Amino acid sequence: MARRNPIAIDKLTSDLEDVLQSELQRFNSENASTLSFPDYDVEQKQRLVGALEGILMGGHDSLTTCNALETLRILSRDRQELEPFVSAALVREVVRHAGLEEEVCQYDVQGARVASGLAEALAVVLEAQKCLCNILYNSPRARDTVSASSTETAILGRIRQGSHLGEVLYFDLRLLFLLTALIPESRQRVKTQDGAALLTDLLCRPTDDRTCIETLKSLFNLVADKDEDAELSLHLVATLQRVLVQSEDEELTSHVVNLLSVLPREALAKLGEDVAPPLLQFLERRMEDPSPEQVSPILLFMLCKENVTRLVKYSGYGNAAGLLARRGLLVGNPPRQDNSDSDSETEEYRQLERGVNPVTGRWEDTRPSPLEGLSDQQKEYEALQLVQLMHQLDRQGVIRPSRIGSDGRPAPVEHVLQLCEGVHTPRSESDSD
Hints:
- By secondary structure, the protein is mostly helical.
- The protein has 21 helices and 2 strands.
- Strands 1-2 form a two-stranded antiparallel ribbon.
- Strand 1 and strand 2 form a beta hairpin.
- Helix 11 packs antiparallel against helix 12.
- It is elongated, with a radius of gyration of 32 Å.
């Protein structure tokens, strides 16, 4: 691959539009797919930031401004080296060019900025929005500046106006998703401004699937805490039902299901029968990828209300061990969870309980103990034989003897005798001190 030439920072201070545009366009074209810029040292980055900031503040024409924003968008992909690129003043300029500087947004289809050149004005707004998406995602420091600008309030105002053109609404919603996901203060401000109700109403407007998906993602952030009022929850369920029934897009359906999963049960009880076919089809498609061996234990665990004791009781420890090991639950549920399983027992189970094999979970006929009739010496001999067989299987790589670690998952041991460590046995009366 040919070595890319770094941007000529000195040219970015020119007053000539054609010089600026030529250098910016060259850099953007050569770095359209570049994700990192290790060739720039800290001083060069600071100079470059200053030059771009000067262009954005300098009242240049729309094409130059758009090119400068594209350059910044490309540079902001580099998460590892982004912070030197990002100054508070530069971020504020990007917010301003996105039309999100004030509570009443500057983006107006009837305004002079747009009337003077609709396509050019839209290009600047969109490029600034894309820059903000990258900067918000990759720069924690920049989030403070964006949050202080009350950007989420301007986005909500623009949605209320309903005057979006082109892809502006889509990128506004992407920004809103990032703000509500990454900045708790922004999420709370959106809630206090009835953002969830506004976005629910937005779902009722005719929009394309990807815009609808971004709306659902932001709504998830807002209602996942489950502190919305009952009336809004009912309105949201009714709206989601309509979206689900009409959806022909797998990703859109997935986000609807995700949002439904965090809504109160009382609201979900209002779902109509027409949601059953799309939900069943969605589940069928999802179960085509994983094997039944993967899905079945998860489904059984859910039916047992994710209670370890109940799962082991009904499936047997041997059948449940794999799922419990993967989830770090070999030591049981965390103390905060209710492990009571008495409410799950039936009279039939109580009658058969004494004959249930705790390893297989199956009822079995009573059989004599294989150790019956053996002397203590014979039992000890059989135990040693079992240890030797386990050690042989371990050396051959057939099994990996393990203990339960502090994280509730299997922790391999070096030798099977380590399994006896920490096991306390009662001392015989004849043992000497």
